[in-house]
TrEMBL record:
Membership in a protein family: Belongs to the ALAD family.
EC number of the protein: 4.2.1.24
Residues that coordinate or bind 5-aminolevulinate 2: S274, Y313
PROSITE patterns, per database record: D_ALA_DEHYDRATASE
GO terms under biological process: protoporphyrinogen IX biosynthetic process
Organism annotation: Magnetococcus marinus (strain ATCC BAA-1437 / JCM 17883 / MC-1)
Annotated protein name in UniProt: Delta-aminolevulinic acid dehydratase
Parts forming coiled coils: none
Quaternary structure, from the entry: Homooctamer.
Active-site residues, Swiss-Prot/TrEMBL: K195 (schiff-base intermediate with substrate), K248 (schiff-base intermediate with substrate)
Pfam families assigned: ALAD
SUPFAM superfamilies per the UniProt record, alphabetical: Aldolase
Amino acid sequence: MADLPFRPRRLRTTPAIRAMVRENHLRAVDLIYPIFIVPGQQIRKPVVSMPGVSQLSIDQAIEVCQHAYDLGVGGVILFGIPDHKDAAGSESFAEQGILQQAIHAIKAAVPDLYLIADVCMCEYTDHAHCGILVDGQVDNDRTLSVLQRIAVSYADAGIDMVAPSGMMDGMVRHIRLGLDAKGYTQIPIMSYAIKYASAFYGPFRDAAENTPSSGDRRGYQMDPANRREAIKEAEQDILEGADILMVKPGLPYLDIVRDLRNHTNRPTAVYNVSGEYAMIKAAAMNGWIDEQGTVLEMLLGFKRAGADMILTYHALDAARWLQG
């Protein structure tokens, strides 16, 4: 019997057997949909570099959130774009800031939808960097107290989870301490623990209106060449109290997603970023690829690499395709 050939095709012959031996599964609940919120009413402003994505006023965002909930999407992550920006990013923690208002309104309209808020300053500062600038450089420690204040303001508004993305050293600890001091011990932190200084963020900067006025973000985001450093960042965030660890971007960093899964016991998220989305959309619009098949294969690849949840602009389409 030992010399009989192994025939893997026996387990591929029918849809039924393929389903039974499938190693990884993609579900709508695994997906998190990013939404960009702007002031005003009845606003759906398309993001030219991201076909199918728009900046939304709160009333329009509520409609999209209801649709996401009806499709079974796991949650949405909110990014705010204020009318007024200043050097301190003061609108980011204002009681009536754009995102604070949005959280209140969405929670009232779609109470069971899981809401996550991105915690950063880049959409709110007039220089579009992720922290307080001192002599042209982001001052890490002065920024921490602002990030803490932002996170607490989102908790006051009713957020379910906060997601600090600025790659400041110590940001998770400061946010955890701030939340706990205000009694928000139940609110988890999904840290952008491993965020690379990537060329794939270009369309997001159009959507979030946060292209730096000078310099770039390589002084605080990670070098794409580094792998060992990623695990150091993740381990530090675990020590500081992170509940979920994120890798961003997704496709060029699947090795990092697998490393994170192998080396830590925290749930793992991956951000399928704007440039990845735009490439697929452009190719599909030109008839070069099958959009549905490509997107679902890519998302399954994130799961196979070890991601528990996927932040993606494809979430609504993917959820609909998975239903059908």
